[in-house]
Amino acid sequence: MKLKKKKNMKILNFYCKSIVILLFAELSVNTVAAQTTRKEQITKVYAINPTGKLQITSARSDIEILMWDRNEVKVTGELAYKDGDNREDIDKLLNAFKNMDTKSSNDVLKLDLKLIVSAVSHNNTPSRKIVTTTILCNGDTISINAINIKTAYMIWIPENLAIYVDSKDGKVKIEK
Q: Among 2, 35, 90, 137, which is least packed by CB within 10 angstroms?
């Protein structure tokens, strides 16, 4: 009788552990699904004198600059962000990304690729929840943590174009 009881306890213990593992797996899948990385892309082309000048200002972005034989600058950008935040904030983020600040003349093109101006985390006292406020380049404020936002750009330029790059917290790669 004791042997049968011991065997039944082992089976019950096995089932309890299995249920706990399945619940944990379900919770993990739901958490990952709520934090899916989404990507958006843009492409912009600017005519420029091939002996002109390109000025790039950037923060928290990776930039790759490539040479080509056209008298224009082509910028492709990719924005990656964690989904699951509120739709209004995501729309503000996409709007700021798609409308980068540029100034151009025939000889000079200035690209300001800074998407995020600042990000501050603070304790929301009544709920004890950490809240992040991110200020975008266009002045909009969103509640998406800046850690969950990443931008990268590929820029094609005429071979003889002078370039100046001011980049903070990002990689810059120049290829011929």
A: 2
What whole-number distance in Å separates Cα of residue 161 and Cα of residue 125?
A: 53
In whole angstroms, give the CA distance from residue 145 to residue 136.
Answer: 12
pTM score of the predicted model:
0.74
- Beta strands at 37-47 and 149-158: parallel, antiparallel or unpaired: unpaired
Q: Mean pLDDT score of the chain, rounded to an integer?
A: 81
Q: Look at the block and give the residue holding tokens 């224009």.
A: 72
Band the pLDDT of 33: cuts 50, 70, 90.
very low
- CA-CA distance, 138 to 101, in Å (whole number)? 9
Give the span between the Cα atoms of 165 and 172, in whole angstroms.
Answer: 8
Residues near 124 by Cβ (< 8 Å), separated by ≥ 6?
130, 131
Average pLDDT estimate for 89-97: 91
In angstroms, rounded to a whole number, what is the distance separating the alpha carbons of residues 120 and 32? Answer: 25
Tokens of 176: 């011929």
Contact 63, 113 (CB under 8 A): yes
